[in-house]
Design the sequence.
């Protein structure tokens, strides 16, 4: 166990668990959880030690997201999305003085990073297209930029200390020629345009905003967003999201297991008087645990695949790697929903009711966000197009 995971379990998870139902019921930001995360220095664990972080591996950060997902899905998803933005700084900030300095501030000030990639006007959740464009003025070190984005969704936008925003490189650029910019709280204006009254993941507070930014041009990442997405963001997003869903799934499996154990104890006491009456949930529990294990294997395998590819950066943009990372998202989201459904069958009315030790209501509602966060249909269409260009590989060795 890492020191970070120990701090999370000791000082953060009890807080998140205590407020999870209120966060869900009221659709509010889990402020208590993030106060505890910041107080325990857990907002910059992915940042290298040279910049003030702890230098944890991606798998170790994924484990934190999973553990948090077991007690509060909204808190875990926010934490994962924050670290997806941190990963852009970690992998593409070195070499840029401003981004290196900002990375150090994320660590020292425990800043919360948000994201604005979705956009109105027909773009929706297409990460690789933008309507809004950066407009530069001035020269050299004094150059600034402005942009306006009709951001239909900005998760925890009001609470973010800084927001990373996609936009076209300039007004003459095509929709796919994008940059990624960092805007600090004092440099942006948010005009509320839409609310977030949803079925699940209610505490992410993913409202819509008209977002206006005026900031120094040095806060624009030097690398094109297409390269940032391919080299780090795609893989980190799907791995950390999947880890959150795994946390939801394992908590559901744990509650199903607890119910079967309780049922076996009751039946064992009855059997002491003669007779053998095994729990009907035994076989279903075994199937459930197999599904959980398969989901875990998919996530760990994806991390290992990323680590191998990172040793040879050219592999990060190969068709095979892109297919692997995209199918991870689809498989993990479908598996998580399947596991929750299996757990509900085992728990029965005790899982369907609110207020029981085996209640699955919040977990069930939160997990149904998984297939529609970058809709699986969109991803499968992209995978199909990629598959047509790729020679099918049936090797277990990769």
Sequence:
């Amino acid at each position: 166990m890492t020191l970070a995971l120990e701090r999370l379990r000791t000082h953060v998870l009890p807080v998140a668990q205590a407020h999870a139902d209120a966060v869900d019921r009221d659709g509010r930001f889990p402020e208590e959880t993030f106060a505890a995360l910041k107080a325990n220095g857990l907002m910059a664990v992915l940042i290298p030690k040279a910049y003030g972080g702890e230098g944890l591996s991606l798998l170790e950060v994924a484990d934190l997201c999973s553990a948090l997902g077991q007690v509060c899905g909204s808190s875990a998803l926010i934490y994962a999305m924050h670290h997806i933005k941190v990963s852009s700084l970690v992998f593409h900030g070195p070499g840029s003085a401003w981004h290196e300095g900002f990375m150090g501030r994320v660590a020292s000030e425990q800043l919360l990073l948000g994201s604005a990639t979705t956009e109105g006007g027909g773009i929706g959740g297409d990460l690789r297209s933008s309507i809004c464009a950066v407009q530069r003025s001035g020269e050299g070190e004094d150059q600034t930029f402005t942009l306006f984005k009709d951001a239909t969704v900005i998760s925890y936008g009001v609470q973010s200390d800084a927001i990373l925003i996609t936009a076209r490189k300039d007004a003459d650029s095509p929709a796919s020629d994008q940059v990624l910019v960092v805007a600090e709280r004092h440099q942006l204006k948010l005009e509320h345009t839409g609310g977030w009254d949803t079925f699940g993941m209610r505490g992410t507070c993913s409202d819509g905003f008209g977002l206006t930014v005026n900031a120094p041009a040095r806060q624009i990442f030097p690398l094109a967003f297409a390269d940032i997405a391919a080299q780090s963001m795609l893989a980190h997003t799907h791995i950390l999201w999947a880890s959150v869903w795994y946390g939801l799934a394992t908590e559901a499996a744990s509650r199903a297991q607890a119910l079967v154990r309780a049922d076996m104890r009751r039946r064992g006491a009855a059997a002491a008087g003669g007779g053998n009456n095994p729990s009907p949930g035994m076989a279903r529990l075994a199937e459930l645990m197999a599904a959980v294990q398969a989901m875990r294997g998919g996530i760990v395998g994806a991390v290992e695949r990323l680590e191998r590819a990172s040793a040879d950066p050219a592999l990060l943009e190969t068709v095979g790697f892109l297919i692997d990372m995209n199918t991870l998202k689809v498989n993990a989201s479908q598996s998580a929903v399947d596991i929750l459904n299996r757990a509900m069958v085992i728990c029965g009315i005790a899982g369907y009711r609110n207020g029981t030790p085996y209640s699955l209501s919040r977990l069930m509602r939160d997990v149904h966000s998984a297939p529609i966060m970058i809709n699986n249909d969109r991803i499968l269409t992209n995978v199909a197009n990629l598959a047509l260009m790729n020679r099918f590989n049936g090797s277990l060795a990769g």
User: Anything to note?
Assistant: The two ends are 29 Å apart (CA to CA).
